[in-house]
Amino acid sequence: MSHSRERMAMHPLATKVREAYIRLHGSEPLLVRSPGRINLIGEHTDYNDGFVMPAGIDREMVFAIGRSKDKTSSLHALKHGQTYEFDIQNPVRVAHPVWANYMLGVLHQYKEKGLKMDALHCVVDGDVPTGAGLSSSAALECGFAFGVDHLHQFKLPRLEMVHTAQWSEHQYVGVMCGIMDQFASMMSMADKAFMLDCRSLEYHYFPLDLKDYTLVLCDTMVKHSLASSGYNTRRQECEEGVRILQSYYSDVKSLRDATLSQIEQHRSELGDVVYRRCRYVVEENARVHEAANHLAKGDLIAFGQRMYESHRGLSQMYEVSCDELDYMFELAQKHPDVIGARMMGGGFGGCTINLVQRSGIDDFISTLQASYRRKFGVDMGHYIVKLVNGTSVIDN
Ligand code: GLA
Questions:
Q1: What is the pLDDT of residues 280-337, one digit of tens each?
Q2: 197, 225, 303 from 292: Cα distances, Å
């Protein structure tokens, strides 16, 4: 697949990281970008071998990378004004600064693969809000993996870098995430969303034709940290469900294989919590397929209905929502220009994704803003996003 290279002139963040790199290290760096993502539908299905429908967005992490003149390597995060110095032969996990771990895990994996790396410097910045469910972490891992690969001309396949990034999230960050975010950051295409089978990793892009509607993200400003939230617990609960179902149905290797009638039949043995988790996942997978059909037919009203159902499932059955997300969801549902809405990403905070009639966007945003402020005393964030290409070099 081809990802067009981007021009630096179009990219204010690239200019910023380049200038900072030159100031700090006195040479011209390689520039790389990697996007955050949205997910239209298919939440918490990826680590259950199910289906997701993400797209890369014009909120990105941008990297300036180059070889070091001595043996010292460093990572510098412009946003935090922090530098972490280390030995590239020994990229261990650190207590501080935590953001460095997303990148150090990538280096550790490359080292394990036997790739010979030179000491390097990296300056990074980005406009993907953190903890907002837009996968700033995957963008950080994927962009760095790609940059280090490109610098050394390892020419690793994109999919291998996706797995490297996911490994880093598991082992260096501690979130047992699925593959959606890293896949989306690395593989997205401009103006398209894609459907990914998280078992076979088959995927296909489709143009996202929303007619008179636009996707608006509303940010609760509740910052989730998936590492300390119930994310890993949800994964364990699903595995517990599979363990029980498997003792009756040997072909159930993951919840992707389970049916509603199997889950109903073993409801009492699963127990209330695991039952609800399993049921949500099976229903959500079915919704992704229905949603794909609706989109193919251009039936946005029906698509929006699946978004509403997804939210209710995430909130009531899977319990990864929170009061703020539920409130934003309710406000959206009541708004006359909205035809679909749901919480997006890992949950416990972050954003809702809303399908809003274009002419009503201003009213939608101001109505939600005012009500949200009244209720929680907080100004919500909002983003209208463009769909962009996956990780790429930025031409100077
Ligand atoms: C986070 C994880 C993903 C996925 C979503 C929920 O973003 O990183 O792998 O599980 O939550 O759909």
A1: 999 999 999 999 999 999 999 999 999 999 999 999 999 999 999 999 999 999 999 9
A2: 13, 30, 8
**Atom nearest to 138 CA in ligand 1:** 8
Residue type, 282: V
Whether 46 is catalytic is no
- C-alpha to C-alpha distance for 235 and 194, rounded to whole angstroms: 24
**CA angle (287, 288, 293) in 5-degree steps:** 95
Q: What is the percentage of the chain residues whose pLDDT exceeds 70?
A: 97
Residues 256 and 375: their CA atoms lie apart, in Å, by: 39
Q: Say which of 46, 181, 219, 337 is annotated catalytic.
A: 181
The residue behind tokens 């593959």 is: 179
Alpha helices in the chain, H assignment, sequence order = 12-25, 99-112, 136-152, 158-168, 180-187, 231-246, 260-265, 267-297, 300-312, 323-334, 361-376
Best substitution site from 40, 44, 217, 311 to test ligand 1's pocket, by max atoms within 8 Å of Cβ? 44
6-207+389-395, which class in CATH? alpha beta
Q: Give domain limits for the chain.
A: 6-207+389-395, 213-385
36 lines ligand 1 (CB under 6 A): no
Residues whose CB is less than 8 angstroms from the CB of residue 116 and which lie 6 or more positions away in sequence, other chains included? 152
For residue 11, how far is its CA from the centre of ligand 1 (angstroms)? 28
The Cα angle at residue 137 between residues 124 and 224, in degrees rounded to 5 = 125
CA distance 190 to 105: 28
Cβ atoms of 263 and 282 within 8 Å: the answer is: yes
Residue 39 burial class via C-beta count within 10 angstroms: exposed 0-12, middle 13-18, buried 19 and up: buried
Q: Is the CB of 346 under 6 A from ligand 1?
A: yes
Residue 134 has pLDDT above 70, yes or no: yes
Q: What's the CATH architecture for 213-385?
A: 2-Layer Sandwich (3.30)
User: 10-54, pLDDT tens digit by residue?
Assistant: 689 999 999 999 999 999 999 999 999 999 999 999 999 999 999
What is this structure's pTM?
0.96
